[in-house]
Amino acid sequence: MSKPLDTDIDQALALVVDANPSSRRTLVNMLREFGVKRIEQAVRPQDARGMLEIRPFDIVLCDYHFPGEGMSGQELMDDLRQSGILPLHTVVVMISGEADYGHVAEAAEVALDAYLLKPHTAEALRVRLTQARERKRALADVFALIADKQFQQAAELAQARADERGIAWLQAARIAADLWLRLGRPADSARLLEAVVANGALPWARLGLARAQTEAGSVFQARRTLEGLIGDQPGYTDAYDVMGRVQFEQGDTAAAIATLRQASKLTPNSVARLVKLGLLQFYFGDVKEAAIALMQAVKLGIASKVFDLQGLTLLATIQFDRGDARGLALALNMLRRSRAQAPQSARLRRFEAVVSIFLALLERRVVEAVAEVRGLLAEIDAPDFEFEAACNLMMVLARLDSSELHLAELPEKVAQLGARFAVSRTTCDLLCATVRARPELMDAVRDEFERINGIAEQAVARTVAGEPAAAASILLSAAERSLNAKLMDLAMQTVRRHGSAIPQADALLARLQHLHDTYRSYGAQVRIARIDDARSLQAAARPDTVVPGGDAAAAGTVAP
């Protein structure tokens, strides 16, 4: 045996993913020569995905090309990264032939630690692994803080490592930038990434800068950054993901759909991107196209953690509209199997309730359907009732009258949903899209949005007039009634900025903070309009018990 790769290589767990038996055997032998004692193998990317979802690996060697499998190594790693399944400490090396070089070079921007062209020597692989593992060790303390969910401390430490310009400083900068975004500090993220871009204009740094600009509200600037990046790197798929979000937030839904369609075309077997495309098409595009994308996602990844079960819920809605009882029953069975593995998941329970209602309506089990609907209506003001759940409930309510079921409380409940979740033009438009067949329900949501805006404008006017205490009182009262995140945020800003002129400001702020902590993290979520690349930062701490499509796989995964 040759010299071990490093002092703890004998503790490493490696996975070799290659369809060719000879190539796979060669890679396994090389790893053994390097001192790796525990090596597992996979022939198909789907098998590798299942293995990587079950437990973390320290080293992954993955071929790019898998003839006849309908999925490349790049698509496999891309899906795993988007769903937060690849831990930070894992070293990923992609191996490809010359014909795939361009694809692999682009993939290296996204999820890889290194790539090799065939034919390669053992020494070339040794060098790549040695360098990558050295970088991982240099950031081990940052990874540990992230695993403990100490994101502030992790961001500060990663920032310090980036500032030092030592080993792994670029990786530290990338992690710090993601963490600053997660912590709601896009300006800090942008400053760090601007320094990286000035040092070499790396594509991932330009993409991160666009994300930071988006989070800071500078969507026009972000769009220019992305247009330049896509022009220079037309195969950089993640740039299309973020561009889709920017276009969506600008109200250009047709362009957002076209952009996500291009991203899916570049990675046609990416389950996560198929779900994103299907969701946006469901709300704002062609429902037939949505069904095709969602069905393909189900076919490729229903048993995987990369599949977000919100996609299955929307597909079930399409099946209800088509009168497809058999398809609905299959969808319900899939949801029940997933929920059986996570019985405490409120998100999965609500998915199951929605599909159960649709199936009961088709089978004319009216009493059962009404009971399920009223159960969901009773949860509207629950702390964990989020925007996604509101959209799904609105879809159900919009279809009740078409089934000749009339709930007397329907106008009141729709108004309550609008008051809580119409926090912006984007959320208002999404809620309206769920009930587009019912103009009167759309009007009710828009009325609530305008009413919320009117309260905010009234409060601002009082503040400008030198009456911040009155403004804070107006906002707090309205926020407690509606649970609207926009009003909560504006109230907190008012008290913090004008606390010296507001009696008992500390007590008022504590009351607002409790309201904010209890409700805002749920009420402000807009899954279809959000991208959170910091998801991958949570993978190091993910529990082994996470189920396919469950809660831990959901955060942001349907965002364009």
Automatic annotation (TrEMBL):
This is Response regulator. It comes from Pseudaquabacterium inlustre. Signal peptide: none annotated. TPR repeats lie at residues 237-270. PANTHER family: TWO-COMPONENT RESPONSE REGULATOR (PTHR43228), TWO-COMPONENT RESPONSE REGULATOR ARR22 (PTHR43228:SF1). InterPro entries: CheY-like_superfamily, Sig_transdc_resp-reg_receiver, ST_Response_Regulator, TPR-like_helical_dom_sf, TPR_rpt. Pfam families: Response_reg, TPR_6. Residues 13-133 form the Response regulatory domain. Keywords: Phosphoprotein, TPR repeat. The modification 4-aspartylphosphate is found at residue 63. The keyword Chaperone does not apply.
